[in-house]
Amino acid sequence: MKIKRIFLFALPTVFALNSCVDLEYNEVSLRDEEWTYEFFNDGVKNMIWDVYAQMYSDELSNNSTSFLAGATDEAQYALEIGAVNNYFNGGWSTANPMASTWNKSYTALAEIHTILEKIDKIDLTEWRYDDNYEIWQQQLDNFPYELRFLRAYFYFELFKTYGDVPLVTTTLTNGQANNVERTPADKVVKFIVDELDEIATYLPVSYADEPYAEIGRATRGAAYALKARTLLYAASPLHNPTNDKAKWAAAAEASKYVIDHAKAWGLKLSRYADLWGNDAFFNKELIFGLGRPSSNDFEMANYPVGVENGSSGNCPTQSLVDQYEFQDNGQTFGERYPGATIDLTADPYEGLDPRFALTVVKNGDEWPTNGTQKKVIETFAGGFNAAPKYGATPTGYYLRKLVDGSCVTTTDNQVTKQHTWIVMRLAEFYLDFAEAAFHANGDKANEKFYSKDDVNKENGMSANEAINVLRTRADINMPKFTEDGEAWVERYERERLVELAFENHRFWDVRRWMKGDKYFKNIAVATLSDGGNTLVRTIKARNWNEKYNLFPIPQSERLINGKLTQNSGWEINNE
Question: CB under 8 Å to 490, separation ≥6 — which residues?
């Protein structure tokens, strides 16, 4: 069976919470509402795809300036004018709230509720003699469960970003929408979890054997994974100030369920290098991903200056490099080379965690990999890919992970490839389980956590056992975790950074841990001199404020709806 990838394109819809919730059929399709609900592929199904398309948030776009890594200790965006720099230079406010999460999510929710309230009335019987009738009916029967998964997804995005948000489950008039109040985060979380529990078993395990084989749609595994991620966030210090261990236990239970059922869902851990590239959409580790058609936009944004049409983009920091461990004893780069000046003649990078070379391009590497543009990268002062060239890396490094080095960005004879943005993959849930189980077990990393399904106490797993599954993969093979207590927390946070680097977790992880002062206030960058033989580690100060843990409610929304309270610290007189 030929498998069809679902590549999504976001349409320029503009519904907000305060908007009139009425799909503008004529504007999009030049057809009226009656036609839209009578025709399957060009009508009903297109509306479903439009909801999926809203999943492309700012950080999951080809616009490298919105890639959130540049607002963390992972990266520095090459140009000071990059919008992502507003997160730490004081350039965001209630008037410039940065994320489009509010508008995109409530746009999607408005569409979901409109479709859900009408979908039961759709009658395809006049098409019963069409060869596709039974397939259309089967997909139509599945759409409500897909829409409810998407509703849970968008409420998670809102909860993650703003905390308390209005919980709306029906279409609203303008008057109703302009008077809604924020719902406590715990109730939003309960809604998400209950919704996913209700619909998960109705979703296919895979679409590969479904009619049309349209992979990329909501699956059973995606529903349970979203539930697990939601519960982890809810258990974290930002949303769990009393450290309620029951919340950690619920999160551990949910992640353990994903791990235990992964094989039955056709999931398995993959080689790290296979997580991105032209065929990543079919990677068995991918639980949910967003596919993009062939392009080299991301490569143009992130190839080094000096590579034709390269713009440097998101440059990994020395802070990130310092966290990679050596394979011999687990000592980090920063621990082995702690001084301000590092001699590079003896190659201090030798023996680092293999994930380093798969994530970071350093001085002397050959990059990109395509035969047309491959060259030895020079990031030392005066080098071919370094200052004083405009837009050269400000950190001493360039990005490799997620960048497809086989793409050619020359003005002529360009080569483009398909891209997949990872939304959820299996490795995350080993890490999620480890974090939750550690806290649920009273900060003990070697004590097994037993879920309700481990009735014979045979399938329990400790936090360290979960992490070591990732670290002992054949292409990683790093020393095992044995730590406990605070030492474990520090190493776990490092491992999570390394494993999930540039997958847009770090921005949110540090916020839910409430550790912005520790990780985001100062970042280390590298300056290379002496033809690349000397590295000088320098510290750049960044602005951090505890109010940044949650985003501001857009002031434009509060001007329309006076019942929307503002997040702490973002009140107008505190901006």
Answer: none
- Is the separation of the CB atoms in 310 and 65 below 8 Å? no
**Locus of tokens 């390269």:** 310
Cα(427)–Cα(286) distance, rounded to whole angstroms? 9
CA distance 575 to 573: 6
Residue 129: inside a domain, yes or no?
yes
Q: Does residue 445 lie in a domain region?
A: no
pLDDT tens profile 217-245: 999 999 999 999 999 999 999 999 999 99
Looking at the 3D structure of the chain, how many domains does it have?
Answer: 1
- The pTM of the whole model exceeds 0.85: yes
Q: Which helix (H) or strand (E) holds 286?
A: strand 286-295
Segments in 30-125 forming alpha helices (H): 33-38, 45-53, 86-89, 101-119
Instruction: State how far the Cα of 552 lies from the Cα of 559, in Å rounded to an integer.
Output: 13
486 within domain boundaries? no
403: closest CA among 379, 367, 427, 371? 367
Weakest mean pLDDT among 49-63, 205-219, 464-478 = 49-63
Sign of CA dihedral 205, 211, 213, 218: negative
pLDDT of residue 16: 34
**Please, are residues 192 and 152 in contact by the beta-carbon 8 Å criterion?**
yes
- The neighbour count for residue 469, using CB atoms within 10 Å, is 17
Q: For residue 155, give its domain range.
A: 33-244
d(CA 280, CA 289): 9
Query: Angle, to 10 degrees, between the axis of helix 45-53 and the axis of helix 101-119?
Result: 160
pLDDT tens, residue by residue, 337-395: 999 999 999 999 999 999 999 999 999 999 999 999 999 999 999 999 999 999 999 99
Q: What is the CATH number of the domain that holds 76?
A: 1.25.40.390
pLDDT at 292: 86
Query: Mind listing the pLDDT tens digit for each residue in 425-481?
Result: 999 999 999 999 999 999 999 999 998 877 666 789 999 999 999 999 999 999 999
